Amino acid sequence: MSLGEAFCVVCGSSDPLTSNRLCESCFRERVTLSELSATIQGVRCPKCSVVLYSGRWVSIPDEELHHGVVQQELAVDERASGLEVGIHAEPVDERNTRLNVQAVGVIDGLEFSDEHTTMLQLSNGICPSCSRRAGNYYESTVQLRSSGRRLSEDELTALRETLDSVISEMEPNPMFFINYEGAVSGGWDVVLGSKALARAWGRYLTKRYGSSTKESNTVVGRKDGEEITRLTVLYRKPAFDIGDIIHFRRADWVVAGWQKDGALLHALDRRERTGASWRDLEKSKVRARVKDHLNVDLLNRDSSGGEFLDPRDWQVRTVSLPFDDDGSNMSLRIALIGDEWVALPDVRRNPGGDADE
Ligand SMILES: [Zn+2]
Ligand SMILES: [Zn+2]
After folding, report:
1. What is the pLDDT of residues 200-230, one digit of tens each?
2. Residue 268 located in a structural domain
3. Are residues 140 and 116 in the same domain?
4. Which ligand minimizes its atom distance to the CA of 130?
5. Number of domains in the chain
6. Distance of CA 226 to CAs 139, 233, 336, Å?
7. Please, which residues bridge with residue 191 across strands?
8. Ligand 1 centroid – CA 1 distance (Å)
9. Are 233 and 271 in a shared domain?
10. Does residue 159 share a domain with residue 193?
11. Where is the domain boundary, 237, 266, 295?
12. How far is the CA of 134 from the centre of ligand 2 (A)?
């Protein structure tokens, strides 16, 4: 021991000191990295398994729930850095799970580690959406229909699937539930817990598949002087999709996109575009669906036509080249119109030559 050296204020040791002038062993005696209560309480809905966690009902995997509750309940020394928490979960019964928790962290340059055991106890509680469902609560109905024809099974599946993506893209909300759905004559009805969800889905459908929605409200009662209404959103899918070839005003057109009140059309055989309203388009007829178009490689070509193998019977057939042919292209997109193959212009690459696009 030499003069001027620092000593532990507790035991007088001259071992290297921590920042509060304690030797390592005295420091370790006085510091706890983390503490955890012996039990953690939670609520789980027995009907749909969502868990009340951080004040919200959420559907999360067990592992994520365990990490979430431990992170919330673990009291950690505020000087700790580089904290790492490992959890081993042992289910005890339906409602209880023992969580063995290891925490590692650094305080004042020294590594600390702790082990805890806590019991996560999930009691049963009906979540708000299940209680409303049980009470047959609903706010809105979305009616999926088509313009002047039956929706095909494929179309219906595709339209219905968009609801799942709409729900997954919105902030979770207990009212975003489906009360009932089923086939009705001419389409499909989906009864929903939320008006906002019905509207959001309607917007999504019109953006993706064109057309527009019609909304109507029915008064179903009164509460605190306010009318209680239910919303009906009617969506009619147009008879055609983007990419379909339609016959309209004595010519064939490629449906190139949706506009506010109708569709954007490109002529099939010349550089021309036009817009048409939904009302006008009611008189159109689909000539070739986009899902039936084919990409083919040409066997050979000249300046006006090319030969390809018809996939229906593997015979060599000739097709006239599209108006926007570049003189050397050896692959084409073709559509069967009537009983004749027609080569399609690339309307995205050649948007009609209009100045405003
Ligand atoms: Zn000491
Ligand atoms: Zn529930």
Report:
1. 999 999 999 998 899 999 998 888 888 889 9
2. yes
3. no
4. 2
5. 4
6. 15, 22, 58
7. 141, 180
8. 15
9. no
10. yes
11. 237
12. 10
